[in-house]
Specification:
This protein is an all-beta fold. Helix content is about 0%, strand content about 65%. About 15% of the residues are buried.
């Protein structure tokens, strides 16, 4: 959980908490969108155990690819590796909220771009 404090005019202190509750769980069905292209999406299912993330990603050839990953200690970032038979994707994302992760990826060793991951 991230805590934000802001002072507003008149010395009013505003407290905002990101996320929904102290321990959001990222288990469930997700959709990856690559390079902000709504036609370039893939389904995934994630399982969370503490800070560890595992799961399954379905690539464009309909092959199942294992996902492994980790939440950082602050709970603000998620790093995932998707390992398919002929290639791998490494992604580093910022957790916008418990249903949206946005960040950068590296695929095939030399292709990079932006991704979004939205919980279904």
């Amino acid at each position: 959980m991230r805590l934000f404090l802001a002072a507003l005019p008149g010395s009013l202190l505003v407290l905002a908490l990101s996320g929904c509750g102290p321990n959001p769980n990222y288990s469930g069905s997700w959709t990856f969108t690559w390079d902000n292209d709504s036609a370039n999406t893939n389904a995934a299912v994630l399982n969370q155990d503490g800070d560890a993330i595992t799961g399954n990603y379905v690539n464009d050839s309909k092959e199942n690819c294992p996902i492994t990953g980790q939440l950082d200690s602050s709970g603000a970032k998620m790093a995932l590796t998707i390992t398919c038979p002929k290639w791998e994707i490494k992604s580093d994302g910022s957790i916008v909220n418990p249903t949206l992760v946005e960040g950068k990826y590296l695929a095939y060793g030399d292709s990079s771009g932006d991704f979004k991951m939205a919980k279904n």
